[in-house]
Amino acid sequence: MTAGVGGPASTAGGLAGHLDGFVRAVRDAGIPVGISQAVDAAEVLTAVDLLDREQLRHGLAAVLLQRAAQRPAYDVLFDLWWPLSDRPVAPGSADDDAVPGETGDSTLDLPDGADLAQLMREELSRLLLSGDEEALRRFAREAVDQLGRTAPGPSGQSYFSYRVMRALSPDTLVAQLLAGLLGEAERGGLAEQVARQTVRERLAAFRAAVEAEVRRRTAAERGRDKVAKNAVRPLADQVDFLRAQAADLAELRRTVAPLARRLAVRLSARRRHGREGRLDFRRTVRASLGTGGVPVVTHHRPRTVHKPELVVLCDVSGSVAGFSHFTLMLTQALREHFSGVRAFAFVDSTDEVTRFFRPGVDVADAVARIGREADVVGFDGHSDYGTAFEVFADRWASAVGPKTSLLVLGDGRTNYRPPGLPVLADLVRRSRTAHWLNPEPRRLWGSGDSAADRYGEVVDMVECRNAAQLADFVTTL
Questions:
Q1: What is the location of CATH 3.40.50 in the chain?
Q2: pLDDT in tens, 159-189
Q3: How far apart are CA 24 and CA 379, in angstroms?
Q4: I need a labelling partner for 71 at 20 to 30 A (CA). Which of 33, 51, 315, 407 fits?
């Protein structure tokens, strides 16, 4: 297999343009790529074997990516821009130079009346058992050609991975593959665990190969740019908190921890009076005796740096369930960097939930306990910011003081109930700093039952729909 640099990308100028399109696609996917990195990517083309596709993949990844979390999106785009064959696939066309398994070329010897799907299923079982990755990729290309094609739909797409997987049903081959891998080995031991893991990895590799081939053929029909927009999942730091899935939470945890540390540093730095402590008058006068009484050199007392105190008010109502999970995750991370973090959750009443965030506690368990044990619902379980603020101010008035940073997290939707602006304004006035992170787009503030625009008049309201915007907030704080 070649790296797919033939055709329009075969000349030096064509290859440079092809690389430029790929770099732009990577940048459009949310992966930051600067000019220097683009230049390094061009240098990679002169240093690697362009006929070795995997060498090219890893070489470009080394200069374009900064985090492991960016790799899945990068791999999808690489397969689109540097496919196994760069020639467009014409359904039903014949090509004497086609790679085995390409359109119109079957590697299976089909007798008359044979069941194509069954024969391909048997071939798939043999390849999965052998573990030949290159042969499995070739087979995936052939399977998409033979089983994945259908009449073009309204979108113009005529190849679908679900048709291949439905015809071959690879998940039903697990028992057969385990028997083949284990042989005479005893069941239930370490050998079976290793065999099961091997089967899972090979099945996942086959699915990925089928999906990559479908994307390649769809890109030939509809264009790479259109396919890239739908094929690439948003990076974890760009996923809206309100739409975050369970698969995104693990990466969000890794993103939140350093942001919490930076947030703590930023909030504590705002109170500094300078790089040094207060003037030490006695030492300064004593030192001035050596210069005729002129205080050429001033001396200062050592500045004591205290970790700041933080009060977090979290909306945990159903309308912001995804965001509340994130905010409580942020609260857990902040506890490691603040001397006193007190967390309060509310729906239509407020309760302190600091006790649920002991060091080492899993956030999911803490969220579950808040739902079971915290007294956050006082009436009907619908958001009531005004009542929640009043309950907080009545029961925990001393929690907010001159040394306290106040952080409110919620969408500001009050269900048309009194927003409690005077109470919030008093809390903001008594705190050292106050900020409100809102997971809704700014354009929706003030629409419907949202009082976000009114809250924004008394507290610094910040749009915070994803981890990237949180990072911007921390950076500009």
A1: 246-271+308-476
A2: 888 888 888 888 888 888 888 888 777 777 7
A3: 52
A4: 51
